[in-house]
Amino acid sequence: MYTSSNQPGMFMQNVIIIGATSAIAQETARCYAAEGAALFLVARSAEKLDALAADLRIRGQGRVETMVCDLLDFSRHAEIVDKAWGIFGRVDAVLIAHGTLGDQKRCEEDYAEAEKEYRSNFLSVVSLCTPIANRLEKQGRGTLAVISSVAGMRGRQSNYIYGSAKGAKSLYLQGLRNRMHHKGVKVVSILPGFVDTPMTAGFKKNGLYATAADVGAGIHKAMKKGREVVFLP
Question: Distance (Å, rounded) from C-alpha 6 to C-alpha 116?
């Protein structure tokens, strides 16, 4: 366990962020770094991960550890959990932030493309949440937050493959939250709306789009408060 140098005698938070190099996750990580949290960051790109870690070390006083992992390699998910708990001993909060926005038309024409979306946006989350939730339950405390989407609330012609994957994720999190309710573990469902990120770079922007910084700050606040379901913005 690590103590924050700017808050003598207080334990700093140990936080895992999976999909850490996404625009929203980076902003959430910066909020935690500013508090002096110790961070364990997981992402696919070693170059982006190193750049983020260097930035966070400058911003905060906490420890920053990294792990390069393709999150579609389900066989490595237990390794992520084992390594994080091995480093920290105790984990206070976990954010799962990875996902993809596939081409709806291609998904309609080729099941393999649709399956990729379900693996990325739903099944990989179940694979990660299973060992994470079990660890938090055994620990008897902690917060698990997962980014889903308002797209999962209704089947729309324009993105029903993506939306149904997100909807399945949100329903899964609802059940997991009920399971964890009496175990001292908070499960937070994050449902962003329109956010200006590289994922939406090809979309025409309007006043409904929030910035990644605003959404990241909202996630950080929701995780600290242990909110159940959060719509952002």
Answer: 45
Q: Are 148 and 190 in contact (CB under 8 A)?
A: yes
Which amino acids are annotated catalytic? 162
Cβ burial 98-122 (10 Å sphere, 16+ → b, else e): bbebbebeebeeeeebbebbbbbbb
Beta strand 195-196 pairing with 229-232: unpaired
What pLDDT is attached to residue 233?
80
Tokens coding 35: 């508090």
**Cα torsion angle, 196, 200, 205, 207, sign:** negative
Whether the CB-CB separation of 97 and 17 falls below 8 Å is answered with yes
> pLDDT for 150-159, tens place per residue?
888 888 888 9
Cα–Cα distance for residue pair 15/41, rounded to 1 Å: 8
Distances (CA, A) of 122 to 7, 89, 133, 204: 39, 28, 16, 27
Rounded CA separation 165/102 (Å): 11
| Single-letter amino acid code for the residue at 171 | L
pLDDT, mean of residues 199-213: 66
Bridge-based pairing state of the strands 185-192 and 229-232: parallel
Query: Using a CB cutoff of 8 Å and minimum separation of 24, what contacts does 63-66 make?
Result: 63/2, 63/38, 63/39, 64/33, 64/38, 64/39, 65/38, 65/39, 65/40, 65/41, 66/20, 66/40, 66/41, 66/42
Q: What angle do CA 210, 212, 213 make, to 5 degrees?
A: 105
